[in-house]
Amino acid sequence: MTASTNPRTAARRGDAPGQLRRDDSGDQRGDIPKQTQRSDATRQALLRAARDEFAEYGLAGARVDRIADTAGVNKERIYGLFGSKDKLFDVILIDTMREFLDVVQPLAETEPGEYVAKLFDYHRDHPQLLRLLLWEGLHRGADAHDVDGWRAEHYVRKFDRAQEQFGVDEQYAGRLLLAFCGLANWSLAVPQTTRLLLGAAADDTDATRDFMRQFARAAMQNELIGPRRAMAGSSPACAPTVTTPAIDTVSTDQTTPAVNALTGKSGRPTPTATARSAAPEGAAADPSTAVDAAAQRLRDAQAVADAARDELGAALRAAHAGGTSANQLARQVNGTLSRPVVLRLLSDG
Fold first, then answer.
1. pTM over 0.90
2. Which of 59, 69, 82, 142 could join 88 in a cystine, given CB atoms 3.0 to 4.6 angstroms apart?
3. d(CA 346, CA 349)
4. % of the chain beyond a pLDDT of 90
């Protein structure tokens, strides 16, 4: 059997990345110094002990001396390798997330119902990742730490793929991902609430999983699930559709309350009425003229929105360069831009 050359797989297995190991038959598959082997084995023992400790007791309750005793090393070695208990927690969380990605098929490669079911299965059978995330939230709130930018890049990719897959706008992509994760995780995160709601049926986790899978599928087929992002020439699989209300073509002096509320203007004519008023008296309105006018207004609005986005991106990068953290900036523009978009704008600079 050929040893994997994937550095991530090798690291978890205990091999040094880029090096081979001796197989069970005794063949020499690489010349790894014994000191390196011992160092890698020590690190892996520490990671296993730390993951168990943090998942059980959380960031605040975990004890470095207990991790050291379990791994069979002194705690000074832990500080020498990782710097602090907080940094060790960060390494453990990212390493556990990487393992999760090796097991669960990405949303972009499946459909929402199956994705929710696989998430549910993983967190039911491997509860440590969910426990680590819950402990992180309890201890740090919305401040998500990272290691070498891996976590930020992961969520940016996940966010972009959701936008493309479902044809929704930026904010709605984030909410869809939250909904899928909530369906899969919540009953496992709060088993006491699940027991109160389901009684003895709470033990039938397969039934709960199947219900969440069907619920996700049904939700994505709902015409009112959310706004459709304009994607010329594309029809994404599983994309939500929006029912477009018919335009009243009888009255020419109607106003549009929704537009008035957004613009602060009153008595603004509808696009149909504007097009008709521009036609010569006694002549029939040309439908193509109304379409051209509406399309031009949309292009103008998009240009204004793009310019505003560029301006906000420049302001975010300037504030970040001045010392404001990415998390603080994301909170500051919450409701306008999602956190992954803020991170992407900061990296564009």
1. no
2. 82
3. 6
4. 36
